[in-house]
């Protein structure tokens, strides 16, 4: 019986993947973790509840097109989550909300490390039950793949005590800049929290962004959890990002290292890696860090929760092939100059659902095994 779950990095030949869905997607109610992700302009203007049918239909067209490309052009086995009605309210002993979020972005909810899938301890109340959309998929795989490890990290309470309620919400304010520069975020250190999309998987090394969605306790949880299997967890910061959420618009691997040459990681030029982190993690490693080109446009949909750096949010389906949003011409030209062929897909109608092409997927299996690309830590 073959192993179904096996993925150690972001570039090996992709064989099986989960792709999110836009069905029943909602705009979350005001809550600390959601508020911190919004632009100043959106802060007081949004209305929670089910997204417009037309918006969902438009996103569905682009999701389904991506599905066809993955299945028929890239020969990747595709899994889709269950449709759950996110317009329903939820109530726990610690909070109550009128509606939830969506199942568009499995990259945040499920962390795949080798043969293990971790349901992550997220910090948005609207996403409290989000991993349930993948329970059938996880259960089916677990029955068939006797080596799969299925883990649910300690679920945070999401009580008020978990958040810095005095966080400066205005992302243009000096106070906000000061908080971010001292690595103080909307979630505090009361309980471990992390989103899978804050974790960059580079073989034996996991580079994890301390952010709004991942606190130091969450990073420590992951460190202890993976240590006995020889993983090394490195905390990283991008102090230029005043809404630090998810590493996949800040640092992305493009070319894997070989014996002949270093690999290439693309770093967002507006969010350089903190110098001390760069020195500690990457000096002596097999990686060279290059600056990403500017996006094609700085326009993003309202309530996007992401920035125009979604231009970096691409999916490598093998070391020489990537799926990229079709209008991101500077990114496409840069990738092609590195010998990476780009499959271009329209995806801007999905951006408002929480992310780009990388966010809406979660690897299940890539060919290849675990390697070290950091001789400095061997
Ligand atoms: N925080 C990132 C989003 C990552 C999907 C950004 O806004 O650029």
Structural class: alpha/beta
- Overall pLDDT, averaged? 96
- Principal-axis shape equals globular
Q: What small molecules does this complex bind?
A: norvaline
SSE succession: EEHEHEEEHEEHEHEEHEEEHEEEHEHE
- Named at the architecture level, the CATH assignment is 5-stranded Propeller
Subunit structure: Homodimer.
Family: Belongs to the amidinotransferase family.
Function: Catalyzes the biosynthesis of guanidinoacetate, the immediate precursor of creatine. Creatine plays a vital role in energy metabolism in muscle tissues. May play a role in embryonic and central nervous system development.
GO molecular function, one term: glycine amidinotransferase activity
Topology at a glance:
Layout: E1 14-19, E2 26-27, H1 32-35, E3 49-50, H2 53-73, E4 77-79, E5 90-91, E6 96-97, H3 106-109, E7 110-113, E8 116-119, H4 135-144, E9 149-152, H5 174-181, E10 199-202, E11 205-209, H6 216-227, E12 232-236, E13 251-255, E14 263-267, H7 275-282, E15 287-291, E16 315-318, E17 321-325, H8 329-337, E18 341-345, H9 348-351, E19 361-366
Bound molecules: norvaline (NVA).
Describe what this molecule looks like in 3D.
This protein starts with 13 loop residues before the first strand and ends in a 12-residue tail after the last strand. The chain has a single domain (14-366), classed as L-arginine/glycine Amidinotransferase, Chain A. It is globular, with a radius of gyration of 19 Å. The strands form 7 sheets. It has a 3-stranded mixed β-sheet. The chain contains 9 helices and 19 strands. A hairpin with a 4-residue loop joins β5 and β6. The chain is of the alpha/beta class and 378 residues long. Norvaline is lined by residues 243, 245-246, 248-249, 306-307, 309, 313, 355, 359.
């Amino acid at each position: 019986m073959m192993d179904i779950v096996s993925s150690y990095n972001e570039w090996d030949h992709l064989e099986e993947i989960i792709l999110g869905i836009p069905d029943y997607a909602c705009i979350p109610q005001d809550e600390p973790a959601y508020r911190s992700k919004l632009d100043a302009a959106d802060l007081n203007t949004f209305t929670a509840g089910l997204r417009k049918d037309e918006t969902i239909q438009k996103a569905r067209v682009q999701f389904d097109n991506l599905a066809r490309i993955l299945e028929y052009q890239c020969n990747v086995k595709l899994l889709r989550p269950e449709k759950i009605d996110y317009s329903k309210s939820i109530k726990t002993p610690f909070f109550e909300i009128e509606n939830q979020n969506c199942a568009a972005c499995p990259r945040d909810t499920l962390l795949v490390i080798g043969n293990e899938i971790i349901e992550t301890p997220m910090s948005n109340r609207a996403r409290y039950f989000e991993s349930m959309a993948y329970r059938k998929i996880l259960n089916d795989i677990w029955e068939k793949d006797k080596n799969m490890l299925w883990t649910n990290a300690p679920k945070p309470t999401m009580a008020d005590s978990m958040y810095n309620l005095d966080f400066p919400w205005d992302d243009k304010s000096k106070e906000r800049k000061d908080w971010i520069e001292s690595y103080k975020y909307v979630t505090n250190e009361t309980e471990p929290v992390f989103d899978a999309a804050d974790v960059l998987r580079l073989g034996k090394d996991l580079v994890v962004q301390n952010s709004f969605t991942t606190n130091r306790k969450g990073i420590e949880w992951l460190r202890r959890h993976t240590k006995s299997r020889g993983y090394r967890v490195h905390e990283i910061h991008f102090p230029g990002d005043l809404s630090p959420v998810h590493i996949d618009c800040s640092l992305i691997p493009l070319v894997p290292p070989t014996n002949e040459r270093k690999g290439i990681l693309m770093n967002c030029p507006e969010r350089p890696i903190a110098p001390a982190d760069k020195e500690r993690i990457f000096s002596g490693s097999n990686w060279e860090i290059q600056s990403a080109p500017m996006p094609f446009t700085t326009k993003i949909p309202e309530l996007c929760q992401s920035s125009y750096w979604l231009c970096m949010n691409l999916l490598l389906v093998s070391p020489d092939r990537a799926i990229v949003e079709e209008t991101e011409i500077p990114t496409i030209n840069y990738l092609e100059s590195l010998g990476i062929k780009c499959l271009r897909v329209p995806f801007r109608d999905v951006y408002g659902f929480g992310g780009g092409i990388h966010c809406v997927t979660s690897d299940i299996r890539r060919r290849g095994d675990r390697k070290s690309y950091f001789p400095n830590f061997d």
